[in-house]
TrEMBL record:
It comes from the Bacteria. This is Sigma-70 family RNA polymerase sigma factor. SUPFAM superfamilies: Sigma2 domain of RNA polymerase sigma factors (SSF88946), Sigma3 and sigma4 domains of RNA polymerase sigma factors (SSF88659). Belongs to the sigma-70 factor family. ECF subfamily. InterPro entries: RNA_pol_sigma-70-like (IPR039425), RNA_pol_sigma-70_dom (IPR014284), RNA_pol_sigma70_r2 (IPR007627), RNA_pol_sigma70_r4_t2 (IPR013249), RNA_pol_sigma_r2 (IPR013325), RNA_pol_sigma_r3/r4-like (IPR013324), WH-like_DNA-bd_sf (IPR036388).
Length: 190
């Protein structure tokens, strides 16, 4: 089992507040790895590359942990790193196109397969709509709407004034809603 999979199984403890003590690197990893993985996926990192890019984020966290100034929460600081690493990832010309799996999918039938399929399709549709946003709007939308961070932390993480973050959020909502309407219009039966 990978370290990221182990981190996904653990429940995160309280997020470090600004000015509070900085947890150890190991604690940071286990508390924030699932958040980083989700954030990277929603910031345009292909699923096959998400663990590698997540590792890049934590390598930067490890290098910079001693210089973390505690002016923001640890999660906000880490998300700022995610934004920059995901932007670098998207600029790279050598993205992998295959989707390799280490293990075969489970063959067991779940009780509510229809509901699970609908949930998976809804997440895929939302992710596709989020990918239509430009980087600035996507970062704000993901942090506020999907990760449910307070807008003050969102603005700090993306490095913009609070009102600009709200403006990006409202613009992102309009784009996502329009994309959802277009995507679902073709699925309706007459």
């Amino acid at each position: 089992m990978s370290l990221l999979a182990t981190a996904r199984e653990r429940r995160p403890r309280a997020i470090s507040a600004p000015g509070g003590p900085v947890p150890s690197f190991e604690q940071l990893f286990f508390e924030h790895a699932p958040f980083v993985w989700r954030a990277l996926r929603r910031l345009g990192v292909h699923e096959a590359d998400a663990e590698d890019v997540c590792q890049e984020v934590f390598m930067i966290v490890h290098r910079r942990l001693a210089s973390f100034e505690r002016r923001s929460s640890v999660q906000t600081w880490i998300y700022g790193i995610c934004i920059r690493v995901a932007a670098d990832y998207r600029k790279r010309a050598h993205r992998r196109r295959e989707s390799a799996r280490a293990e075969l999918p489970d063959q067991e039938a779940h009780e509510d397969q229809h509901g699970a399929l609908e949930d998976r399709e809804a997440r895929a549709l939302l992710d596709a709509c989020v990918q239509t946003l430009d980087d600035d709007k996507r970062a704000v939308f993901v942090l506020f709407e999907l990760e449910e961070l307070p807008m003050t932390e969102v603005a700090e993480a993306v490095g913009c004034p609070l009102q600009t973050a709200y403006a990006r959020l409202y613009a992102a909502r309009r784009v996502v809603e329009a994309a959802l309407r277009r995507a679902t219009a073709g699925r309706r039966m007459p």
